[in-house]
Design goal:
Distance between the termini: 24 Å
EC number: 3.2.2.n1
Protein name: Cytokinin riboside 5'-monophosphate phosphoribohydrolase
Family: Belongs to the LOG family.
CATH topology: Rossmann fold
GO molecular function, one term: cytokinin riboside 5'-monophosphate phosphoribohydrolase activity
Number of helices: 8
Catalytic activity: N(6)-(dimethylallyl)adenosine 5'-phosphate + H2O = N(6)-dimethylallyladenine + D-ribose 5-phosphate; 9-ribosyl-trans-zeatin 5'-phosphate + H2O = trans-zeatin + D-ribose 5-phosphate
Amino acid sequence: MTLRGSRVPRSTTDQRLLEGREPAGWVHSDPWRVMRIQAEFVEGFGGLAELGPAISVFGSARTRPGHPTYALAEEVGAALVGAGFAVITGGGPGAMEGANKGATEAGGTSVGLGIELPMESGLNAYANLGINFRYFFVRKTMFVKYAEGFVVLPGGVGTLDELFEALTLIQTGKITNFPIILMGATFWGPLLDWLRHTLMAEGMLSPGDLDLLRVTDDVAEAVAWIVAAQEERRGSGFSATS
């Protein structure tokens, strides 16, 4: 399931599953799909079971080397390794590549969890442990199950998807002692203002919901928050792979 430099598919497995435009023969093909999904879970669990403490890092695939956010991603990756964590990313280009690069060059475990997409192909060169998935929901499980927190760099729709999904899991008690760090006060400030002055003002958020997010421009501060949460988590008897 590990792919590097593979061809870009014209359609993806997820697309074919979700569009649902198949003839009545679906009753024969869907059981095989279930087995493929099961196989992806088994592959992911097997590949990451001995990973140890890790943090998932998200950010835009469109961030180019030389951009300040790419440099920030490298710094985050290296700092997490220095604090004893592996780094997990989506394995793509941009900020993901930066975080993988920082982790690898710091001598740490640098994980890339790729996804079959029509616009991307293979994993970046800095992921020294790579698994490629066909199904988004299987991959998303790995980001949470094998991480002790998220660091979220500036990004687009995919980054927001991971951010709000994790926030929902924390809000509903599905995961606990799980820090979410937003890197970049200027970038994330308008979103937090909207959450506070629109959603919270309308009663659509509880008063403490925004306290689940921490914002900083300081990598050392972000890592210190993560380490503190890790200690609290271990003190309460939970582990990332429970």
